[in-house]
Amino acid sequence: MPTTTTDRLLHSATRIPDTVADARRLFDSGATRPLAARVRSLHALRAMVTENEAAFEAALWSDLHKGRAEAQLTEISVVLAEINHTLRRLRGWARPKRGPVPLALWPARARLVSEPLGVVLVISAWNYPVQVLLAPLAGVLAAGNTAVLKPSELAPATSELMTRLVPRYFPDGVVRVVEGGVPETTELLAQKLDHIVFTGSGTVGRVVMRAAAEHLTPVTLELGGKSPVWFDDDARLHRAARRLAWAKFTNAGQTCVAPDYVMTTPDRVPALVAALRAAIKDLWGPDPRTGPDYGRIVNERQYDRLVGLLDGADVVIGGEHDRSERYLAPTVVTVPVGAGRPSLGPDAAHPVLREEIFGPILPIVPVASAEEAVEVVNAWDKPLALYVFTSSGRTRRLFERNTSSGAVVHDAGLVHVATTGLPFGGVGASGMGAYHGTYSWRTFSHLKPVLNKPLGPDTLRLAQPPFTDLGLRLVKRLMRHG
C-alpha cells in the first residue's frame, strides 16, 4: 500500500526526538568538523539544487503559481549564489585569526578559532520555500553543524520534494527533514538545539523565542513588518515606478521585504499612479491573470484576508479578484492618513495600514514632506527594509540617519536580499540576527578565543599578592593602556 501524506507526517511526528538525537550523535562524533567534510556537504547541497532544477520549478509553480523565470531569479539562483560564494571563501573564514593581547598580559599570544555550534534547526516560510530553507543551510553546513529542516506545510509540493531529495543527497544524515504543521514544529522546538533559524510572522516568532528560552538556545528571527517607500524622484518617475511595481508585485506581493506602502507628497500622487499603471501593464500585461509570470495567493484564508483589506479603500489600479484561482490583481489604493489618528499600527484609520499586507495591495499615503515621512516610519515598529526613490542626496541622508530598519535601499527594492556579501536581517520587531555569506559563518559558529600565556617570564606576579606600591602602580598603568 502506498504511503500517504498523513502516514508520512505521523511518522515524522513520532520520530522527531530520535531525529534530533541522531543529528546530535553525528555532530558529537566529529564527522562534520573537518574542512573537507564541510566542502563535501556544500557540494552535495549544490548538486541537490542543480540536478533537480526542473523539479524545484514545478513545485514552486504548484505551491505559488511561481513562473520559471521568477523561480530561478528569486529562489534557485539565490541559493546557488550563496553556496558558490561560501565555497570560494570557506578556507579563509575557517583559518584561525590572530587576536589582540593587551600590553598588561605580554608576553602572550591569542588566536580566534571558529567552532561549530552543534544541531541547527531551520524553519522555513511558505512564500520563498526554497530560498529561506536552503540559503541559511549553506552557512549551517559551512560552519560544520548538522541541520534539521522544517519546510512549510503551506508549500506542500516543495516540502514533499525536500523530503525526497535530502536523504538522497545527504545519506550520512548531516541534513534531515521533518515535515508537518504546528504539532510537529512544536515538538521540534521542545528539543535541545544549538541554534534556531525561523522565517515568518512576528506572532510565530514570539512562540519560537519562548520555546528557545527553555533551553537558552540562540535564535535568528527573520520576521517582516511594514517596509516603507519614500518617492519624490519626478525626473525618473517611470523608471522608479517600474522598479517599485516589480518589487511589490513579485510573488504576488508575498515577500517579507516587499514595499508595504508608499509615501509621497499629495501633488505627486496622480503622476505616480499613472506611472505604476503603465509599469504593471508593461511587466505583466493588460491581464496578469492570463500571463505566465504573475503568482497566486498561497491559500484561501490569505486570499480572504487580502480581499477584506480592500473594503473602504479607494482602489485606483487593479482590485480584480477570483477566489477559485486565489487570484488578486496587482492593486494600488490611495489612503489618506486619518486626522488625529496614528498613520500606522493597530489604531490606524484604515486596515491596510494596521498590519503587514503581505499581498499585492500597495497603498499610497500622501504626506506633506520627507520629514513627515520619517515621523511616520519612526512612529511604529522598525521595518525589515526601507526604500528611497529620490535624486536628492540630502533626502537620502535624512532617511539613513533618522530612521532604523533592517536595511536601506536606494532606487530599488528586494535586491539586497540577493546580495550575498551583505547581512540580511531585521531589527526590533522585524527580527534579530542576520545571515548570508560571512554573516552566516558568524551566526552559525562560535568564535572561541585561545590565549597562550607562557609561564616564563612570570609577569603575572605583578598582579598577585603580596602587592607592592611600585608593582600596583605599574600594573594599573599597563591595564589602563588598553
TrEMBL record:
The active site is at E222, C256. The keyword ATP-binding does not apply. Residues 13-449 form the Aldehyde dehydrogenase domain. InterPro entries: Ald_DH/histidinol_DH (IPR016161), Ald_DH_C (IPR016163), Ald_DH_CS_CYS (IPR016160), Ald_DH_CS_GLU (IPR029510), Ald_DH_N (IPR016162), Aldehyde_DH_dom (IPR015590), Aldehyde_DH_NAD(P) (IPR012394). GO terms for molecular function: aldehyde dehydrogenase (NAD+) activity. One of its GO terms (cellular component) is cytoplasm. Keywords: NAD, Oxidoreductase. GO terms for biological process: aldehyde metabolic process. Belongs to the aldehyde dehydrogenase family. This is Aldehyde dehydrogenase. It comes from Streptomyces sp. R44.
